[in-house]
């Protein structure tokens, strides 16, 4: 019995499931997948079974049903039947090639579209009926830093980040609008990119803010297009979701009229 051939065959059969799972999953780590091994294999195997059932059904419908006897001989490959098995495979080589090529293509493209649709129609939003099924449980930073858990009408117009950083031994507060964020290979938040950044030393902090004029006196604007803060260097990290409204529009949370921005959550 040739052990290498059945091993390669099993790999080719199961590979679409792993490919489908990896493209559908939204995960923040880029180097290694730390999901439990049993969960990874089970999920990939189930996706592979579903894909092959669909493809075998299509093949049977167009007049190219599975030749199970050839498949079994390939898996075991008795020496007295090897020539007949190889001949059968060679005769069906174009169809086998089309089968696997189309299967791998669909396993790569379709889950990407499904993931886009889940995010587009907010099927993964916390609190919805099917969130337990569609939610990307390996991407907590994605939900925190995009506002993906808000309803569509309540989606924040921008997200404000306030971080305290130890700058040359002086705790300094930096406040700005989030534009991008990046992860390190382990999935931990690596850095955030902010615009319209202001700073102040905590020594200049006050317990009561007396309005915009007081804020302007205590904050210093940082000149530049983008400001990068490394998460590992932040002592505290505050996320604020802001919803804009027109002047004169009633405040959503009871603020005196009419501030230009209202905090959504």
> What fraction, in percent, of the residue positions are helical?
40-55%
Number of strands: 7
Strand residue percentage = 15-25%
**End-to-end distance, in Å?**
65 Å
Globally, the shape reads elongated
Largest sheet: 7 strands, antiparallel
Q: What's the alpha carbon Rg, rounded to whole Å?
A: 28 Å
The number of distinct structural domains comes to: 2
The helix tally amounts to 8
Order of helices and strands: HHHHHHHEEEHEEEE
Uncertain runs are 250-265
Q: Kindly state the mean pLDDT as a whole number?
A: 81
Helices and strands: which structural class? alpha+beta
Main attributes of the structure:
2 domains; 265 residues; disordered C terminus; alpha+beta; 42% helix; SH3 type barrels; 7-stranded antiparallel β-sheet
Question: What does it look like?
Answer:
The chain is α+β, with helices and mostly antiparallel strands. The chain folds into two domains: 4-134, no CATH class; 140-263, SH3 type barrels (Roll). 42% of the residues lie in helices and 22% in strands. The chain has eight helices and seven strands, in the order αααααααβββαββββ. The chain has helices at residues 4-24, 37-61, 68-76, 82-91, 93-120, 131-134, 140-146, 212-218, and strands spanning 158-167, 170-183, 189-201, 220-221, 227-230, 234-244, 261-263. Strands 1, 2, 3, 4, 5, 6 and 7 form a seven-stranded antiparallel sheet that branches. A hairpin with a 5-residue loop joins β2 (170-183) and β3. α1 (4-24) packs across α2 and α1 runs parallel beside α5 (93-120). It is elongated. Residues 250-265 have low confidence and may be disordered.
